[in-house]
Amino acid sequence: MAPPTPTAVIPREAWEGCSVLLDINDGDRLAFFRLTPGATVKIGDKSCSLQPLLGRPFGSLFRLGPDGLLPCNTAAPDAPSQDDKPRDAGQAQDETRDNRSLVDNNTAQTLSSEDIDTMKRDGASGNAIVEALIANSSTFGNKTVFSQEKYKLKKQKKYAPKVLLRRPSSRSICETYFKKYPARIGFMRVDALSLLLSMANVGAYSDVLAVDMVGGLVVGAVAERLGGTGYVCSTYLGSAPSSIDIIRMYNLNSEMTSRIFQAPLSDLCSLRSSGNAPGSVQGDVVEHSSVPDESLQSSLKKPSDTEVSDGNAQSTTVQPTVVEAPEPATDEHLNQGDIPIDIDAPEPAKNEHLNQGDIPIDIEAPEPATDEHLNQGDISMPECKGNNGNPIAPKALRAGKAPSPERKKYWGEHGFSSLIVAAPGHEVESVVADLLPLLSYSAPFAIYHQYLQPLATCMHSLQVSKMAIGLQITEPWLREYQVLPSRTHPHMQMNAFGGYILSGIRIHKPDPQ
């Protein structure tokens, strides 16, 4: 019998009640909003309604007009990208000008601020103001082509800002958090997140077990990749579930949200003790037959010395690494229309803005809390439908309900098909020892950690216990490139650290001799 047809994916246009990511001035400012009737965004000193975004496809570009946001004319844009002009030339330019004779003494511009204010009151567009500034600059013609482009871009960002409508996806959400609040997602970079999903072999009709202590970023990425076909169970240590509120920004439909479950690790481990789990097969001895909540909480503060072997009979005693758990991403105002998470000009690292033309603006962003406003006012609202006719709630549904007894019984008999662990503040070795028996045999697993030593200790423990094969620790590395005519080179700033990932395959533990 053929498997059921997967439900359709998220619509391509923005609808009322959905979450959107607004990219203002090409990444200078990033903000999450929920498209409610009263939602507004403040650009400069002007507050604009977000109603013009309704019905527009994701990826649309808007400009700031006299009455608010106006869609840019894609057929004949009034402010084409400056990077496109040299690309059309197709030949090397004979550039003999340079900037050595230019002196910045504030006398080159003859257009005063009062003249600019008068143009604004008369209804002049931002592009008209930029052209007036260029025409009244006595040094613009003496600048190099690249300096002219930079000057235009700088003035355009100030007087003619552009707003890009982006769909919140695993990549955009991870990149946005990593720019301003990296500790809330465990310093997980987007390439590390993609490696986690690939190494855990997350695909359609999978049953994924996840330990998500990074605010729900991993669980949301898994649910997005499953596309409403499989199941993801987010387990947690102790009695209080960890926050997975970032899921609400993914715009998952009701079918996809209904396949996200939350269950304490002690409940899942009870399946093993009852003899239903794949880890309880005869001959597969499991040391951790039960997981009391007290022992799990004490494991966070009880690191132990471990010997790490390199396979050549050489061992080194390694001091324990105590990792402080970052606060989970608790996005209280992610789902509020008028109080967004606003990320302005990311705080660079120590040498992030070396060789950068413009100094990044560091504006204090509001502290994101628990996503309460995304679902504020739990009142029954009319059901919205996407292009495909599938119901999509105008407000994000709350994910993470408890699994049914039938589903838990199925997991107990067949096991999970993959495991993903992203718990930077927990002792990885003890947690993984409790989680691996819940997997089916030959199931892959991937474990993320900010530091190398906890994963090395866990890897040694798995090698000694012979619970897994194909063990390897991967350090992701990412560098972006600027691709422009005569200016193609790696970016002068990059993040040199993206965490580490331990991956492997669970196997049947041999009988003790």
Automatic annotation (TrEMBL):
It is found in: Nucleus. Keywords: Nucleus, tRNA processing. GO terms for cellular component: nucleus; tRNA (m1A) methyltransferase complex. The keyword tRNA processing applies. Residues 82-101 have a biased composition (Basic and acidic residues). One of its GO terms (biological process) is tRNA methylation. Coiled coil: none annotated. InterPro entries: TRM6. Residues 72-116, 274-336 are annotated as: Disordered. It comes from the Eukaryota. Residues 102-113, 309-320 have a biased composition (Polar residues). PANTHER family: TRANSLATION INITIATION FACTOR EIF3-RELATED, TRNA (ADENINE(58)-N(1))-METHYLTRANSFERASE NON-CATALYTIC SUBUNIT TRM6. Belongs to the TRM6/GCD10 family. This is tRNA (adenine(58)-N(1))-methyltransferase non-catalytic subunit TRM6. It comes from Hordeum vulgare subsp. vulgare.
